[in-house]
């Protein structure tokens, strides 16, 4: 079913001419009648309502028009068509068209559900039941050509869908699970690691110092994943930047729905110590004047690494690839990711700064799905056989929609995203407690291929996918189920870890 039940657009526009129009009014009337029956009907489906010039008036070198339309050939587009037609018509009188302007555009949209709140850029808007009404004034020609009104209508559509599925945004469906495993521990591993001096709190929340003993276990798990996933499936290592220009985050969609949990980076206005002199002086007095510092910084230019796969799509941005050269499979583990969890911070498993091995792949649709599924299979093997953890796999909201703050729109039976979760005994019983997602496996279809304008030389379909292994979460999952007595651990990880370095001791 169509999301719009009714649409009405009314434009008060002006066509500005290069000279005063000195012409009998019937001739102008005849011209507009002709336009209504030809130019404005073009491309309108049979039986649908075409836009119409409702009234006009000539005033010096301006023609004012009032245009009313439905959804097909919307009134702002009709105005552009009229401009072109008038240009042709008046050329014999040696009069040109300078520009067109919309003084006022009124839009009324009835949708199939009510929207709870709405604030549109450039517009004043209100909601009456299932109807959204908005007005935009003084729209210059460039903005008309850029499709401002169409974009605002699309925004209403997204908001309408959002409120329709509100509360259902977290899509989750069990796919499969392991046998029940023997738990060797039932405490919170973060607490235990703190007691042992394996980790230390940082002054800011959601960040930890890892001392050598836990770092050795962390690196062992990382090694296990590299050997059994990256090497096994032919992924090659790459190094991706961690400061991501906002323009890239606009393309990935993160700026449409994830900014509230991102960190942003602001370089200094100028690399000039004089600008900072006053600030330095305050610091020398033992203060940190943070507001003063902000004045000396540019506005945010970068988002700090959030998804970790962004540079992979940028690598292919605007490029033409050949299917025969694909799939390409890269992984990055060159640095941390950041997420502003705020009040959601929990122990080692939910942090503001974390480490991840991010697998990224591009290729024919079939290949991308196969790669994703193979990664999932191998990850389950590690978790189940090598680490002997209790796990389950769930279908989840497609990641690219989640990042844009959008809802699930599962098409058919195809699953875009799987989450691999492990049981945390310290959180309570298996049925009622929250399990921990340690890796997510995604196919994006052509979502990023389109937004990054990646082309195939023969226009064959290409898709992308990504899979992120959250290393802190693997570590927490393992310690939560297998505990801190190494001699009781499964054979392989016990041997790989070997002897642990000593923790840091403090006299006080
Ligand atoms: Zn990703």
Query: What gross morphology would you assign?
Result: elongated
Q: What hetero molecules are in the model?
A: zinc ion
CATH class of the largest domain: Alpha Beta
The CATH architecture designation of the largest domain is 2-Layer Sandwich
Q: Assign a percent range to the helix content.
A: 25-40%
What is shown here, in short?
By secondary structure, this protein is of the alpha+beta class.
Walk me through the structure.
The chain has 508 residues and is α+β, with helices and mostly antiparallel strands. It folds into 2 domains: 4-165, Alpha-Beta Plaits, CATH 3.30.70; 172-266 and 301-497, 2-Layer Sandwich (BirA Bifunctional Protein, domain 2), CATH 3.30.930. The chain is built from 15 helices and 23 strands. It has an 8-stranded mixed β-sheet. A hairpin with a 2-residue loop joins β5 and β6 (131-139). α6 packs across α11 and α6 (212-231) crosses α14 (471-482). The radius of gyration is 30 Å and the shape is elongated. The termini are far apart. The model has no long low-confidence stretch (mean pLDDT 92). The structure holds zinc ion. Zinc ion is lined by residues 307, 309, 358, 466, 468. Residues 307, 309, 358, 466, 468 line the site of zinc ion.
């Amino acid at each position: 079913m169509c999301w719009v039940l009714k649409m009405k657009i009314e434009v008060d526009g002006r066509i500005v001419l290069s000279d005063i129009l000195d012409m009998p009014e019937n001739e102008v009337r005849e011209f507009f009648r002709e336009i209504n029956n030809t130019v404005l009907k073009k491309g309108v489906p049979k039986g649908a309502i075409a836009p119409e010039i409702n009234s006009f008036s000539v005033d010096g070198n301006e023609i004012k028009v009032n245009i009313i339309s439905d959804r097909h050939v919307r009134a702002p587009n009709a105005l552009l068509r009229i401009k072109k037609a008038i240009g042709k018509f008046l050329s014999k009188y040696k009069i040109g068209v300078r520009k067109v302007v919309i003084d006022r555009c009124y839009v009324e949209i009835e949708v199939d559900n009510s929207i709870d709140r709405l604030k549109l850029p450039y517009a004043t808007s209100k909601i009456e039941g299932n109807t959204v009404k908005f007005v935009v004034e003084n729209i210059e020609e460039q903005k008309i050509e850029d499709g401002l009104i169409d974009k605002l209508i699309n925004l209403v559509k997204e908001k309408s869908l959002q409120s329709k599925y509100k509360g259902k945004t977290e899509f989750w469906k069990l796919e499969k699970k392991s046998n029940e495993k023997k738990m060797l521990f039932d405490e919170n591993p973060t607490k235990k690691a703190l007691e042992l001096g394996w980790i230390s709190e940082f002054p800011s929340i959601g960040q930890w110092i890892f001392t050598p003993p836990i770092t050795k276990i962390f690196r062992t798990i990382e090694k296990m994943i590299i050997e059994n996933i990256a090497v096994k499936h032919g992924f090659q290592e790459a190094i991706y930047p961690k400061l991501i220009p906002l323009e890239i985050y606009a393309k990935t969609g993160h700026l449409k729905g994830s900014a509230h949990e991102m960190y942003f980076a602001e370089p200094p206005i100028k690399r000039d110590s004089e600008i900072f002199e006053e600030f330095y002086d305050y610091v020398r007095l033992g203060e940190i004047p943070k507001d003063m510092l902000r004045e000396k910084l540019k506005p945010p230019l970068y988002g700090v690494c959030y998804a970790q796969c962004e540079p992979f799509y940028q690598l292919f941005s605007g490029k033409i690839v050949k299917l025969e050269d694909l799939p390409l499979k890269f992984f990055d583990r060159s640095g941390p990711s950041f997420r502003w969890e705020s009040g959601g911070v929990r122990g080692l498993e939910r942090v503001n700064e974390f480490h991840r091995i991010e697998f990224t792949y591009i290729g024919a649709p079939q290949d991308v799905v196969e790669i994703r599924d193979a990664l999932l299979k191998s990850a389950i093997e590690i978790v189940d056989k090598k680490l002997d953890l209790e796990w389950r796999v769930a279908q989840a909201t497609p990641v690219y929609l989640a990042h844009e703050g959008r809802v699930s729109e599962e098409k058919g039976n195809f699953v875009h995203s799987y989450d691999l979760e492990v049981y945390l005994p310290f959180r309570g019983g298996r049925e009622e407690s929250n399990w921990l997602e340690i890796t997510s496996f995604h196919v994006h279809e052509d979502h990023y291929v389109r937004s990054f304008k990646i082309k195939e030389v023969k226009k064959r379909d290409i898709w992308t996918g990504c899979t992120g292994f959250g290393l802190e979460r693997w570590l927490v999952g393992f310690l939560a189920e297998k505990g801190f007595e190494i001699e009781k651990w499964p054979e392989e990880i016990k041997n790989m870890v070997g002897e642990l370095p000593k923790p840091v001791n403090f006299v006080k």
